[in-house]
Amino acid sequence: MLAACFQPVPVDPPDSPFVLFVGLRDGYKNFALATQALARLPRHRLLCVGGGALRETELAGLPADVRTRIQHLGIVSDLALNTLYNQATCLLYPSSYEGFGLPVIEAMRAGCPVVSVDCKAVMEVGGHALSVVPGNDPQGLAAAVLALHGGDRAARVTAGLSVAQHYDWQRTHDQTLALYRDVATR
Questions:
Q1: Nearest to 72 by CA among 5, 24, 119, 15
Q2: pLDDT of amino acid 182
Q3: Nearest CA-CA partner of 131 in 143, 59, 28
Q4: Residue 146: exposure state from Cβ atoms within 10 A (0-12, 13-18, ≥19)
Q5: Residue 42 to residues 14, 36, 137, 186: CA-CA distances in angstroms?
Q6: Closest Cα to residue 126, out of 185, 71, 167?
Q7: Where are the beta strands (DSSP E) in 23-133?
Q8: Contact (CB, 8 A) for 116 and 137
Q9: Which of 12, 30, 47, 112, by CA, is between 20 and 30 Å from 79?
Q10: Cα–Cα distances in Å, from 145 out to 18, 39, 66, 137?
Q11: Average of pLDDT values for 27-43?
Q12: Residue 51 to residue 56: CA distance in whole angstroms
């Protein structure tokens, strides 16, 4: 259940700050945009979860100092992912198209701010809790990440926790079951 898996927990701070990228990295997920933002964040690492191993084509053309700060962690348990969300500066979610964007809710539920581009579905899910940057703006993404090291972080975490409360698997299950029962009795 999402509510039980993802939540704020006390964690040791990471050795160096990092942004988290969760999921596939192909096409509209804009991984290249994330790496361009990373190039403007010399103190940060980019940790990737899921989406398969990093491919040479994803790293091609990146300066060596950027390449060495990108790490693929593979598929991790929900507990490990929750820890990563709690340690990350933010979830970097530059996807230009989504059906929903589940990592956005997971991150907000864990108390992790979300930096995204202006994708309508993600903006609908995350609402006012997101730090939204116009699409294809690596400098804007980097600036939004850096703003989280200041006073903006606490406000984004509080807003994210509030928004995430509206997404509950049990309520979704109950409402879906009620709909099926209603249709079955017609």
A1: 24
A2: 87
A3: 143
A4: middle
A5: 16, 11, 17, 61
A6: 167
A7: 45-49, 70-72, 90-93, 114-117, 131-133
A8: no
A9: 30
A10: 10, 12, 16, 13
A11: 97
A12: 14
> Which pLDDT value is given to residue 46?
98
Structure tokens at 88: 């990350």
Which whole-number Å values give the CA distances from 117 to 28, 36, 40, 148, 164, in the listed order? 11, 14, 16, 16, 19
Decide: helix, strand or coil at residue 125.
helix
| CA pair distance 85, 82, nearest whole angstrom | 5
> What letter represents residue 114's amino acid?
V
For residue 117, give the nearest of 17, 18, 29, 56 by alpha carbon: 29
In sign, the C-alpha dihedral spanning 45, 46, 47, 53 is negative
pTM: 0.91
Phi, psi of 90 (to 5 degrees): -170, 165
Quick check: 116 and 108 in contact, CB under 8 A?
A: no
Q: What is the pLDDT of residues 170-183, one digit of tens each?
A: 777 788 888 898 89
Q: What is the DSSP-derived secondary structure letter of residue 27?
A: G
Which residue in this structure is represented by tokens 């060495």? Answer: 68
